[in-house]
Design goal:
Elements: H1 2-17, H2 27-39, E1 50-54, H3 63-73, E2 80-84, H4 86-95, H5 100-109, H6 112-115, H7 120-128, H8 136-146, E3 158-164, E4 170-173, H9 178-185, E5 195-197, E6 200-204, H10 213-218, E7 223-227, H11 241-261, E8 266-268, H12 283-306, H13 311-315
Parallel strand pairs: 1-2, 1-7, 2-3, 7-8
Antiparallel strand pairs: 3-4, 3-6, 5-6
Helix pairs in contact: 2-12, 3-5, 3-12, 4-9, 8-9
Length: about 325
Amino acid sequence: MYKKLYLFILLFSILVSSAVTIQALDEEEFITDYLWKRFVSLKVPERPKIVLVLGGGGARGLAHIGVLKVLEEEKVPVDMVVGTSVGALIGALYCAGVPIDHIEKIGETVGWNQVTNVRESTIIKLLVSEKLMSTEKMEKYLNEKIGNKRFDELKTPFVCLATDLMTGEKIILREGEVALAARASSTIPGVFDPVEYRHRFLIDGGLFDNIPVDVAKLLGGDFIITSAVSADIAKNSVSNVFMILTQAIYIQGKHMDAERLKDSDVIIRPQVSEVTAVDLGKGRECIDAGISAARQTAAHIKRELIGKVSTDLLFGERE
């Protein structure tokens, strides 16, 4: 009772000093903002361990950049990132400490020629021989951005997923070279050479687990925020080998994704369903879609998180 009275007096004094009229006040928003400032001062385990899941989706995954930008602006703590495929690439950059505005510029300018050896001659070889294309340039490109970091050197804990081509197992990657792991997680089967990693041959993690909410929970996540960039598969072009293979992956994962998402506490859904997996030229559009979706969800995230913390920690005096 006294704590609530103290809070009311405090809020009222702030209102008066800020010359804000009662009529203009959005009471719920004001109280949420006040309590959020208290929340962000807490550390785990006083507050939930927050894990951000970044799903696969090819070029649509550039929307994750916009999501991360808003979460950072709103000071939503991210204790761990779990990513698959393009989510692994974006997650690696963020967890390595690359400033979000730099990641945004990367998303606006990156092209297939920078991260693969895709060109007309290699595509012809793919069609007439057994030689697949390579993602070695992807690993080199990522290493240039993150400084050849290993998992234990990252600013924020990071995990990514790949699939063992020989056994079909889901492989959780959380040690060793980050760029190599992220490259393996995003290597599309049938188009690019599998990545050799500790006597395994690894391919795209989306083949097995495109939205790895289950892994986030396995690793101790108390509150899971998922950025999902699912495709409208009925509108995808299937005019070439690359698109047919990616479409097959999306069909396989569609129902599995729906099950995974049920275990998320909050789902952010950027409106990028009509962007194809290969359309890196729409980076700015995807980033903006991520920003818009995250801003619409930010208040809900805050309220949900505040509700999971003891009132004594939010209303009481901190030592």
